[in-house]
Amino acid sequence: MAIKWLIDASYFVAAVLFILGLKGMSSPVSARKGIIWAGVGMVLATVVTFLTPGMGNMLLMVIAIALGGVLAWVSGKKVAMTDMPQMVAIYNGMGGGAAAAIAAVEFARGEMHGMVVTLLATLGALIGAVSFSGSVIAWAKLQGVMKNAFRLPAQNAVNIVLALATVGLGAAIVISPTVDPMLVGAFFILALILGTIITLPIGGADMPVVISLFNAFTGLAVGFEGFVMGIPALIIAGIVVGAAGTLLTQLMAKAMNRPISNILFVPMAAGGGGEAVEGEQKEVGAMDAAAMMRYASKVIIVPGYGMAVAGAQHKVWEMTELLEEAGVEVSFAIHPVAGRMPGHMNVLLAEAGVPYEKIFDLEEINADFAQADVALVIGANDVVNPSARTDKSSPIYGMPILNADMAQNVIVVKRGKGTGYSGIENALFYKDNTRLLYGSAQQAVAEVIQHVKAMSV
Amino acid sequence: MDGFVAVYIFMLAAFTGYEVISRVPVILHTPLMSGSNFVHGVVLVGGMIALGQAETPLEQAIGFVAVLLGAANAAGGYVVTERMLAMFKSKEKK
């Protein structure tokens, strides 16, 4: 069986390439090589699978690969960097759906070898289906298709009843000696509803952690189905991703100071919570803002998702270069959850051409705010809210924040007077040394650039 | 597959996944999540084998969906990850 040997050997090489690829991706220097190795592994595994003896439906298979592959390839090429998180969510959901569908085919064939295999197939189907429908909801929310967090009355009770019912049906499938199509159908429908219901009430700000969690879920589902199909490469790739994804989810949740159980079961109170903030917001014009920064010696820029949405990162970098020509020391402070996912903001700034050396994370830069003349907050809100340090009743109490309020002066670029993404009042905006520069980030920074240029002549 | 061999594979793979990620800098969290998303796109292989064995129209239909979704996971995951990481590369040159 030379063919069989070739296939098994190729799967083995692919599994090694996946692990090396992931290892490579965990360091900036080798990250690019990492994804290419993993890509080579994927192509190898896919190609040799065509050689599997006794495979039917080849035409159907080629059509499915071409259709799915090309559609995803094209949409992945086109998507804007700001929309990356929901793209990852949707691709991940497809993986979960694929794992669930594999289980469904096995159920339809009705050839389950023993209870352990049936158990793992069912588990994989459950996790995969939840990951699929949950990821679709996550995508819809981040894409803006679905605007509001939607919370059922007695949400947690509904979740628990639904989860128990789904697990009960799954157990019935595992125990029953024959495959009952009605039972299997009901099981899949319930699992899909479960994923939807769990994800619906989760606020947009928590979504990255949820996407990461579903990513780990899909990994597990793939691993389980790999066992059912008897392909070790699937088991290894799936479980490695399941474990890595779980760790990544924990890291993200830690960065946001929100335990995963809280994110799933205690969604942030929308538009409420925390003490009311006294005082008023003081406005500043673009010219004064420009002067404050032009004649400062040290400016720290705190970019947030608002800047990225406005596509202002290129303007911000242009302004930074101007200020530096004028002898101002400028650095960027990145909160761990700036953007929509940890590291998202770094990617966005990298895209605009901001060099690594100017970008600092929370631990590195927080002590420097006290020496800064100006902290420029662009489209960020909760990550600079001092209530997180002081106000125990605030929903974000305890979250590590950037100490922008410690700077001599704070300029906040903001579209209007409203509260931000999470709907929490920000005490920073009312402080004596804070000035608000209203306008879209793009236009406000463009005006500042004009004035800085005028001053440099 | 022998039951216990599979359990060993599960365990070792889980430790590997945990170790491989444990010292990743925050800036790479997003690309890494995307990259691991790509790796579980290998579910495509499982989908292909399932479809290859499918006989009834129902099995073929579900198998088709499995391959379609798996291929989208793999292709999309690769493109998106590669695009993000390419930016890190181009910047290092400057």
Uncertain parts of chain A: 269-273
User: Which structural class do the helices and strands of chain B define?
Assistant: mainly alpha
The overall average pLDDT of chain B, rounded, is 87
Q: What is the H-and-E element order of chain A?
A: HHHHHHHHHHHEHHEHEHEHEEH
**In percent terms, what proportion of residues of chain B is strand?**
under 5%
Q: What's the order of the H and E elements of chain B?
A: HHHH
Count every beta strand of chain B, where a strand is a DSSP E run of 2 or more residues.
0
Distance between the termini of chain B: 52 Å
Structural class of chain A: alpha/beta
If you compute it from the alpha carbons, what radius of gyration of chain A comes out, rounded to the nearest whole angstrom? 25 Å
Number of helices of chain A: 17
* Helical coverage of chain B, percent range: over 70%
Tally of helical segments of chain B: 4
Helix percentage of chain A: 55-70%
Major β-sheet annotation of chain B: none
Globally, the shape of chain A reads: elongated
Beta-strand level of the residues of chain A, as a percent range? 5-15%
The spatial strand order of the largest sheet of chain A comes to 3-2-1-4-5-6
Number of strands of chain A: 6
Largest sheet of chain A: 6 strands, parallel
Summed over residues and divided by their number, the pLDDT of chain A gives a mean of 86
Describe this structure in words.
The complex is a heterodimer of chains A (457) and B (94). Chain A is an alpha/beta fold and 457 residues long. In chain A, 60% of the residues lie in helices and 7% in strands. Chain A has helices spanning 2-25, 31-49, 58-78, 84-109, 114-143, 155-175, 181-199, 207-229, 232-256, 260-265, 286-294, 305-309, 313-325, 344-352, 362-365, 387-390, 441-456; strands at residues 298-303, 329-334, 359-361, 374-378, 409-414, 434-438. Chain A has a six-stranded parallel beta sheet with strand order 3-2-1-4-5-6. In chain A, strand 4, helix 16 (387-390) and strand 5 (409-414) form a beta-alpha-beta unit. Mean pLDDT of chain A is 86; it is low at 269-273. Chain B is mainly α and 94 residues long. Helix content of chain B is 83%, strand content 0%. Chain B contains four helices and no strands. Chain B has helices spanning 3-21, 29-39, 43-53, 57-93. In chain B, helix 2 (29-39) runs antiparallel to helix 4 (57-93). Chain B starts with a helix and ends with a helix. At the A-B interface, helix 1, helix 2, helix 3, helix 4 and helix 8 of A face helix 1, helix 2, helix 3 and helix 4 of B.
